[in-house]
Write a structure and sequence with these properties.
The protein is mainly α. It has one domain. The protein contains four helices and no strands. Helix 1 crosses helix 2, helix 1 crosses helix 4 and helix 2 runs antiparallel to helix 3. The longest helix is centred in the C-terminal third of the chain and has 40 residues. The chain is elongated. The protein starts with a helix and ends with a helix.
Length: 131
Amino acid sequence: MHGLARMSAGLGYGSFVYLFVTLFNKQQVVLTHETVWSIFLISAGAGALSYLFDIERISFLLALAAHFVLTNLVVLLTLLFNDWIEDATWSSYFGSLLLFYTISWIVFIIRNKMIARELNQGLKHNANNSR
């Protein structure tokens, strides 16, 4: 997958997860232009960083840890840039980050299983037709 495709996929995952988590937020969330652009930046950054999983010299666990740390860095920089860091405690920050990251991975795994199922059905269908 190329860089633009990774960033685009990251935008999809990040936007979905943000809206999903916001759905269950007890406080009313006000969307501003800064919030939307920040979610886009964080999501595209996480998508671009998914390149780490294609590096064969490092294990999946190391790639996952590096992706988490670097995504966290992108989030922190975005929070600092928007002066949002003062509004959150460190425990709520890391809790939110862990929640977003976990939900993103669950969505990613479900999506990949659905794609694998479709590919396997297509292969099975093609194998049956070629007999």
